[in-house]
Amino acid sequence: MTPIADRRVLLKDATLREGLDTPGVAFDSKARARILRALDRAGVDEAEIVAPASVAGDVALARVLPRHQLKLSGLVYAGTSRAAEDVDECLGVLDRLDLLMPLSPRRAPATPAEKTRRLTHALARVTRSGFEIGAGFPHAFGVDHATLVRIAKAAVDSGARRITLYDTNGAAEPFAVYERLSLLVEAVKVPVFFHGHDDLGLATANAWAAIRAGAAGLDVTVNGLGDRAGNTSLEQTAALLRVHGVSTGLDLQRLLPLSRLVARASGIRVSPLAPIVGAYAFAHRSPAHRPHPGEFEALSPELLGTQRTLKAPGRRT
């Protein structure tokens, strides 16, 4: 595996897909355009803009956002789908698509053999069109490793050029993520991505474990938007990787404006205690911090284009 400090990790933003699963959140075409521009200016590699439950509607919205009007420099448009037939609608709009196959036996098709058959048939059909395709596995941490490896290898043999493992219910923990990703990265010779949820507050830690295990990329959302407790936070992940010497291509000084834009557009405010972009992220109240406040910060606020504040201790009641 490439040494951690010499690697380039791809961040795929899913704010316009997973973020729309946040209760009460909706983005019209103008808001989508503003968010896409901000992601592009920040240096994000890829934006997922088509969801499996709304392919036709999302593609229609994407068609009214031509890239030359947005003046995007190189942002890749991506989507997810459960059916190969959706590829026909995505051609000419998206750059790539991931076909999803949930691995839980409670989600159809029930058996691993039938899941593999349907997925490989769909991948083979799409591959003939020349469209870049990947395979995504929801509930990837709820099945045994041998089952996961078999279906992942079959997907690659059928044309998948990327494999994404979904911690669908957010129950995975970093040691399990590291172990599973390490084995899969060794087993398949295509990029492996990790998609995390924050139900137990471990999404960022799990993302870091995936990168340490050799993952080539991560799915993230601005401000951690997503259903339930949200998804892996773009800003936390980008800052964490920067601190540990991993390149993402992101301009960290664009994170605060991006976070504020999405907070306004979504109506979901950012907690002042949120890491990196929260109002208190660089606020010091303890008297012990005042002589050397940088000793109490994981990264310099200047990297984010902001400043620390030193508060008077005040009275504690």
Q: Give the strand line-up of the largest sheet.
A: 1-2-3-4-5-6-7-8
Main sheet? 8 strands, parallel, barrel
How many angstroms does the end-to-end distance come to?
52 Å
String of helices and strands: EHEHHEHEHEHEHEHEHHEE
Strand tally: 10
Number of domains: 2
- Examine the secondary-structure arrangement and name the CATH architecture of the largest domain: Alpha-Beta Barrel
CATH topology of the largest domain: TIM Barrel
Low-pLDDT ranges? none
Q: What is the number of helices?
A: 10
What overall form do the CA principal axes indicate? globular
CATH superfamily of the largest domain: Aldolase class I
Structural notes for this entry:
With 317 residues, the chain is of the alpha/beta class. The protein is 33% helix and 13% strand. It has 2 domains: 4-266, Alpha-Beta Barrel (TIM Barrel); 282-317, no CATH class. Strand 3 (76-81), helix 4 (87-90) and strand 4 (96-100) form a beta-alpha-beta unit. The model has no long low-confidence stretch (mean pLDDT 93).
What's the layout of helices and strands?
Blueprint: E1 10-13, H1 29-42, E2 46-50, H2 55-63, H3 67-70, E3 76-81, H4 87-90, E4 96-100, H5 112-127, E5 132-137, H6 145-157, E6 163-166, H7 174-187, E7 192-195, H8 203-212, E8 217-220, H9 234-243, H10 255-266, E9 283-284, E10 309-310
Parallel strand pairs: 1-2, 1-8, 2-3, 3-4, 4-5, 5-6, 6-7, 7-8, 9-10
Helix pairs in contact: 1-10, 5-6, 6-7, 7-8
